[in-house]
Amino acid sequence: MSKAILSSVILMLCITQIRIAQAQEGAYGYYNDALLFSRTYYGGTARMQAIGGAQVSLGGDMNAAYVNPAGLGSIRQSGITVTPSLDFNNTDAQYFGNNTHDFKANFNFANLGIAFSMPNEDENSPFKGGTFAITMTRTNNFHGQYNYDGFNTTEVGKSSIIDSYIDGAWGIQEDNLGGIEYDAYQSYLINPETLTDDATGSSFTGYYKLIGDQPRQVEKIRTTGAQYEWNFAGGANINDIFYFGGGLGITTINYFSEQTFTESEYFYDGSIDPAINSHRLINTLRIDGTGLNGTLGIIVRPIPILRIGASFKTPTIYGMYDTSSEDFLVDWNNNFVFNIDGNDMTLDDYAPEGGPYYSESKYSLSTPWKFSTGASIFLGKSGFLSADVEFTDYSSANLSSNDFSTTADNNEIQSRYQNAMNIRIGGEFRITNQFMVRAGYAHDGDPYRYSSIDNSIQRISGGLGYRTKDMFIDLSIVHTQYETLRSPYTIYSFDDPNEDISPSAHIDHKNLNASVTFGFNF
């Protein structure tokens, strides 16, 4: 009866979390999704987080269902785990010499799980039994926010997002403009003129702006959501020497971003241009996805103090659905009057009719496979040391869709991304029969072929554990640090059309995660 009650409780928690988990930065293209949703981390129980996620060869923990199902074969008692977690995100942004700081906190569940141990009662049989587990693991945390603020001091005529509108509209007659260039024309941010090509003598449509340069630029970015993987896995034990297992993974994506970019305080003739107060773009993006993958693994114990393990996770095949919106706003100074075609005009605030614009699309995403191997050394009853190496090729991700062509995005995936190697090391040391102390380190390799910054991710972790025969409590603290670059728009040099001079903010991300696992054996 107690087993039935405990099973019902954990399944109710699982169902609740599935409902919660049911969602790219659109300006950067779909190829960013390939990396965003492929670059997951080994979260899970607090014990495994505390040792840096180095668990491929370890076993004996509920989290084996996600990392290496073979490790379930060494679980000797049925049990349930619940791991509430807190994330504290800090960001520091540098933009044209100006520094800004931002902060956001988030509560979540890093892990839920239930395991059913089925030992073989025949002590003479080499088959010692096995364990079946159902777990939920948070593999990506999208909650965060940052902002940057500064005056763009790029060369005059190339310092504003309005200059990127001119680049996009150049050579296209005003009646044939579309998208954001059409809004820029309709709002009088860009204005047409007929020019002559000196080489051919033919005429074409060029564009110019009436307002100043080197504006103050501010962007605020807020993201929410998470990526979860549900695993239905089993592991078996052969003579306490060979363990093998496999599992089915169901992954959910829920992602939302809101990006608000504002320009103001344009400089003209040595002072702030009185013609315009500000120009603002607001973009939102929501992505929902569900995917399927499989995991196979083995662990071998050639001698009592050593375990060697390996696991293979297939590509995850996602069905994705996204909705996005774009709001284009211009706040003109109503007292500004200028002459167009001989007519005086006073410019009022501008927003597109029927705006903001909404769009939606459906597509499929195949993430890269992952191969992990590792070894654990057991120090008698004093503890253990464990180390893992994971290999993945981010350039092997692939997009497909019936709604739009994915050729350009797939080409970007292959040219931008590369193989990466992730390293995880950690250990546990027993202080008394019931108390343990843990520490770990993880390094996720740079997935980019070419970049002006190091895009690797560093994690330093530690934790404590308390265990009795029937229950356990584990605590982990994980500090994560990495860098990113953010360009609000793309623009090229006057002198060299292939030279990208887009403004770029440098963002330092620091995350502190605290997790507690409550476990009960039955």
What characterizes the major β-sheet? 14 strands, antiparallel, barrel
Q: Please state the structural category.
A: mainly beta
Roughly what is the average pLDDT, rounded to an integer? Answer: 90
Strand content: over 45%
**What is the distance, rounded to the nearest whole angstrom, between the alpha carbons of the first and last residues?**
11 Å
How many DSSP E strands?
24
Helical amount: 10-25%
Radius of gyration: 28 Å
The low-confidence parts are 1-28
Helical element count? Answer: 7
Shape: elongated
Question: What strand line-up does the widest sheet have?
Answer: 1-2-3-7-8-11-12-17-18-20-21-22-23-24
Features:
two-stranded antiparallel sheet; 14-stranded antiparallel β-barrel; disordered N terminus; 522 residues; 24 strands; 12% helix; mainly beta
Walk me through what this model shows.
This protein has 522 residues and is mainly beta. Helices cover 12% and strands 54% of the residues. It has 7 helices and 24 strands. A 14-stranded antiparallel beta barrel has the order 1-2-3-7-8-11-12-17-18-20-21-22-23-24. β1 and β2 (98-119) form a beta hairpin. α5 crosses α6 (179-186). It is elongated. The model is unreliable at 1-28 (pLDDT under 50).
